[in-house]
Specification:
Length: 578
Amino acid sequence: MLKEFRTLLPLARRFLPHYILGVLCLLITNAGELYIPQLLRRATDTMAQGNFSLTDIGYLALTMAGIALGVAAARFGWRFFIQGASRRIEATMRRQLFDHLLKLSPSFYSTMKTGDIMARATNDMHAIRMASGMALVAFMDGLFLTIAILIILFSTYPLLAAVTIIPLPFITIIVLFTGKIIGRRFRLVQEGFASLSEQVREAAAGIRVIKSFVKESYVQKMFRDANGDYRDRNMSLVKLWGLFFPLVGFISGLTILLLLLYGGSGVVDGRFTPGDFVAFMSYLNMLRWPVVGMGFTVNMIQRGAASLARINAILDEQPEITSPETPTSLTPSGDIKVTGLTYSYPGSEPILQDISFSVSQGETLGILGRTGSGKTTLVHLLPRLLDPPQGKISFGGRDVHDYDLHQLRSSISFVSQDSFLFSDTVRENISFGNPDASEEAIQHAAELSTISRELYQLPKGWDTEVGERGVTLSGGQKQRITISRAVLMDREVLILDDGMSAVDTETEEQILTSLLEYRKGKTNIIVSHRVSTLQHAHQVIVLDQGRIIQRGTHRDLIEQEGMYRDIYRLQQAERSSG
């Protein structure tokens, strides 16, 4: 269990001054609380004697009030320092987790559910904060107060102390017995929360599909099942935790019963003064919290360990695609060359086989192929979104593995099939890759993609919120905004991976004419299932089952027998009939 705290220790060391000051304030708090029963003892004995003045009682009352104010100030101090440190640790760990998530390869996200990641970044972080804050408070309270109170009791009333604390070791046994069970059940609760979060996320993201297929009742059942499972897991934990406190309270109450039995008779016999009895009862009541606090400590440590194990599972993941230890200082530019490239996903047959081609700087390459022919895989290998074999892809005469990842990807603009937009305005989505772009540059990028002509239809024009993943826009509008985003970045290479599939042919022609004119002298790679899109390319390669089966210019390929001409004729016939 404790090995999971390895990621927490460096952060604890960073905030060690906060913890030291917090513990000092906590000790001052405890010292003040330990002294107050002595004042109560004196006040009780003074009043029991009968011959006392208001001055005597007033002095003791003012002293207790002063100590109480000091305790309040010290209590604020330990909360500020210890809980403040735990909040900072929580924020730092959440930032570390997010930064690490950005480094991980796409393959990680194909196996890890978004809802699970969200649960680890929220619920689990809360448990870690409690383990790094309140757990320390409960432990220090338990340790210091228990030792101090036992010393006070046994040094002043040894026989009575020995009798009244007999039930307390049973609380320790209960704490040790339930600790591991609580840890296991809490881990199940966290996993249930992750599953529930994923259910809600999927339902919200797929609401249009749910409604169009009239599957609301099915989704409701799925949610009820996940919600019921989460409730049952929580109840399993609550039952154990709910039994723990009453049991501890009952055992602690036995100490008061023993005190009344033996201490009360001692007061009657004259062996103890009334003040001694009041002070002893105060200390016994104070001793109840440290014993329960040890249970809190075990519970919070168990929960923190369970949550840290889930966080560490992500932090221990290593990105599959990394920069070289000594990257070249050259900026990626020039010709792109692919030589004998074969690539397969883990555990599958090769998706690309012996691919070879070159694109000179300033040229446009077109790629055509049926669904599943490897087009998207090929263009994902160029910026190392997928990692190609060594020596198979070069950029400017150097292997892509020689470049720093950030530097390599900063030379390539990518418009993917999935037109992802952020839940922000149209303007912010276009300027995402170049936030310092001028208003004129943003407008020009919008004009090149033709999205500018439709802005007046949107409620707030440039400042219209597009919703999650651009849900308020049509497919064609989303694609054109992503094209504007890529154009505004003005990088050495532009890759359009079927980025105009939702745009009509006339608009596509207009976009391509303007785009290629604007990008003269820079390299473009256009993946499309439309032959009309590829007629602007300097050369076209045709993929089928992961192999290049044809290559040449548009004019050459429509004159050759093969897939390209077949698709061209079919699409021409569709346009004529349409």
